[in-house]
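User: Here's a chain of 48 residues. Predict its fold as tokens.
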Amino acid sequence: MNTRREDQRRAAIAKQIDENLKRVYEQDTTDKIPDKFMELLDKLREQE
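Assistant: Prediction complete.
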């Protein structure tokens, strides 16, 4: 009986980790690139 409970607990933890990772990834992909990074990229392109 404890094994089943432990399996459910592990599954719940894994689900929570998956959901949190998805949230972080989605937030990261929607964040705007800072102006300083864009300026650096422009300077690198000019050098090429």
